[in-house]
Design a protein that fits this description.
Largest sheet: 5 strands, parallel
Number of strands: 5
Strand content: 15-25%
Shape: globular
Order of helices and strands: EHHEHEHEEH
Strand order of the largest sheet: 2-1-3-4-5
Bound molecules: 1,3,4-trihydroxy-5-OXO-cyclohexanecarboxylic acid
Oligomer: single chain
Radius of gyration: 14 Å
C-alpha cells in the first residue's frame, strides 16, 4: 500500500468557517474523511498534518526524509506566497512534491500569483476544491501505472 504525506498550512484548520464563498462549507476533518475514502479505494493511505506555524511545517517536511512516503501533497496556504524556509525544506525532498490549492489563485488577488513554494514542487493543482487532495494522490498512482 502506497502512503502519502498531506500537509496543510495556516488557516486551513478554519475551513468550514473561513470565507465559505471561496473555500466551501466543509471542514478540514470532512475533507480528510472524503479524501481517505477515495484513496482507500485505490489501495493508498495518507498521514495528515496541519500547522499554522512555518517552522513546524519545515520540521514536518524534514522528518518525512526518514519516512517511507510515495509523495508529499502540500497546501502551504498563505506561506505559498512568502516562505523561503518551506521552499528550502521542500527542495531537500527527493520524492515528488505536489502543491495544491483549493481555490484558483489566478482568479484572486495579485499577491497570490507569486508562489515561492511551488518552485520546489513537481506539479501544482488548484481550483478544484476538496478534490485537489485525492486527485494529486491519484496523479502519482497513474504516473506509476498503479491505477
Ligand atoms: C490557499 C490559497 C492561498 O492563497 C491562501 O492564502 C490559503 C488557501 C488555497 O487552498 O486556495 O490559505 O492555499
Amino acid at each position: 500500500m502506497k502512503k502519502f504525506l498531506v500537509i496543510n498550512g495556516p488557516n486551513l484548520n478554519m475551513l468550514g468557517l473561513r470565507e465559505p464563498d471561496i473555500y466551501g462549507f466543509e471542514t478540514l476533518d470532512e475533507i480528510i474523511k472524503y479524501t481517505n475514502n477515495k484513496i482507500q479505494q485505490v489501495d493508498a493511505s495518507a498521514d495528515w498534518y496541519q500547522s499554522n506555524i512555518e517552522g513546524e511545517i519545515v520540521t514536518r517536511i524534514q522528518e518525512s526524509l526518514n519516512q517511507d512516503y510515495a509523495a508529499i501533497i502540500i497546501n502551504p496556504g498563505a506561506y505559498s506566497h512568502t516562505s523561503i524556509a518551506i521552499f528550502d525544506a521542500l527542495s531537500i525532498i527527493k520524492i515528488p512534491v505536489i502543491e495544491v490549492h483549493l481555490s484558483n489563485t489566478h482568479s484572486r488577488e495579485e499577491f497570490r500569483l507569486r508562489k515561492l513554494t511551488a518552485r520546489a514542487a513537481q506539479s501544482i493543482m488548484e481550483g478544484l476544491g476538496r478534490d485537489c487532495y485525492y486527485l494529486a494522490i491519484y496523479s502519482q498512482l497513474l504516473k506509476n501505472e498503479e491505477i
